[in-house]
Structure formats: C-alpha cells, structure tokens
Amino acid sequence: MNTTAKLISLHGGHSGQYCSHARDPLEAIIQRYIELGFSKVGITEHVPPTNDNFLYPDETKLNLTAADLYKRFEDYFKNINCLKKKYASKIKIFIGMETETYTGYVDHIKNLTSKFQPDYIVGSVHHVDDNSFDYSRGEYERIALLYGSYEAMYEKYFDLQYEMIKELKPFVVGHFDHIKIYDEDYEKRLLLPQIVQKIKRNLILIKTLDLVMDFNLRALNKGAKEPYITTSILKRAAEMGIIVVPGDDSHGVNEAGDHIDKAIEILKALGFDTQWPEPRLLT
C-alpha cells in the first residue's frame, strides 16, 4: 500500500447491517481498514428516508418501512460509537452520515444531525425532483425522458446540488458528478456551456465554504473508466485550490480501501495536497 500519503476514505464503510444493498458486518469492514494500514476512516451510512415513498426497491423487497430504517439508523450510531472506542488505538474513526436530497430533506437532515451528532456529513444527490436516478439504467432513462433530454436532467441535478450545499454545508460533497452514472457521453455533456456554468457556480460555493470534494472510487468497481470526479472537473477543482479527498464508497469487506493508492497518485499528479483535513460538523 501507499507509504508517502496517509491512507484515508471519507466516504465509505457502508455495511450489510445498515444498508440493504451492501454486505458484511460493520466491524468486519473496520477490521479490514486496519489490516490495510488506514490510520483514519470515515464511516458514512445512508440516512433513513423521510417516509415510505422514498424507500429503495431493495428495501421494499425486504418489506422494510421508513420507521424500520430509522430504528436501524439508531442502531448504527450506537454501534459505530462503540466501535470507535473499541478500535481507537488502531484507527481513528470519523462517524458520518450520507444525505439524500428530496422533498423535506433540509429539516430531516438537520433533525438527524441534532439528534445523533455525527462528526460530519456527506452531502449527496441521488434524486431529481424526488425520482431516484442512480438505482437502475431504466430509471435513469425514464427520468431523462421526463425532462426531455440528458442535458436538462444534468442542469436540474446541479441546481439541486447547489441548493443542498448551500442549505446543509456538508463537510464532504459526495460524488460531485454522480448524474453521469449511466451516460456514455458524459464527458462531452459535462463540457456543454450551460452545464459548465452550473458546475463552476457549485465549485465556487464549495471553495467559498471551504468544503471538501469526494474523489469517489466506487465507479471503478462498476467498470467505469474514471472515478467521480471526472478529469475535466477535477482539473478545475485543482486550479481553484479545492480540497479533494479519496472515498472508496465501500459496500463490503472486499471493497474497503479499493483504488485508494491510484486515487492518491492521480491527486498528486494534479497538484492536490494530500495532507488530508479532519472532518468536522459545519451545520
């Protein structure tokens, strides 16, 4: 493993205990980070939905409800606080949670933050106008049709992201260009003037608020040619002096720490500082 920059993931540690599309016990995932030589890691479980309308298909298949997921989230915080203490001599664990961005999310996230007091939050967008675009290609295509074009869907995504960043001030902005997930022509689309304008606006806000961008590596596990953030945006972030930190977005023991060495090499080559900041709560 890499020895010149400290290994870290600030968007990771989803486990089968607390995420229906992940695998393995949370403690086993933490043990894997320790085994790999991580000195710090952020565990960022998904927040429970505001109501049953925002359940994912894998959750409805298991007959779960929003109330069930809230109880599971409570258990996550109890467990991760215990594990943080248990492994304190071996690894520094930052307790986080990953947001959603749909109707009612601002008050919901603020209430969860107030109750559970995480070390930090990851601000993510998985929905446009309450439609989840990242669960399947079919849903992605359906939502693009609703908007009339990929371009219009991209614009809506970056508008929602801007609102989320402004409202929540998440220490980590998760997978910034996640909207490209099923788009083979995303590189060209992300360079269209109307989309570039929104990207620049969002990056300026991130820089102004002194937030961190997630260099999210999960896409590589799904066969993508590059992580989130795509190269054109990553270069722009480097020019602006924005902090970018690796996140494996792991969903099981076998994914913990994946591609972190590669991420560090990419970030160093582009001139990013690899002295990673420690997460903190900004809301």
How would you sum up the global shape?
globular
What name does the CATH topology carry? TIM Barrel
**How many β strands by DSSP?**
8
Note the gap between the termini.
Answer: 35 Å
**Rounded average pLDDT:** 94
Strand order in space, largest sheet: 1-2-3-6-7-8
Low-confidence parts: none
The CATH class, by name, is: Alpha Beta
What is the beta-strand fraction?
5-15%
Please describe the biggest sheet, giving its number of strands, its sense, and whether it closes into a barrel.
6 strands, parallel
| Second rung of CATH, namely the architecture | Alpha-Beta Barrel
Helix/strand/pairing category: alpha/beta
CATH superfamily: Metal-dependent hydrolases
Radius of gyration: 18 Å
- Percent of residues in helical segments? 40-55%
Total number of helical segments? 11
- Can you write the helix and strand succession as a string? HEHHEHEEEHHEHHEHHEH
Counted up, domains total 1
What does the secondary structure layout of this molecule look like, with pairings?
Blueprint: H1 26-36, E1 40-46, H2 57-61, H3 66-86, E2 92-98, H4 105-116, E3 120-123, E4 127-128, E5 131-132, H5 137-147, H6 150-168, E6 172-173, H7 186-189, H8 193-208, E7 212-216, H9 218-221, H10 231-240, E8 243-247, H11 260-269
Parallel strand pairs: 1-2, 2-3, 3-6, 6-7, 7-8
Antiparallel strand pairs: 4-5
Helix pairs in contact: 5-6, 6-8, 8-10
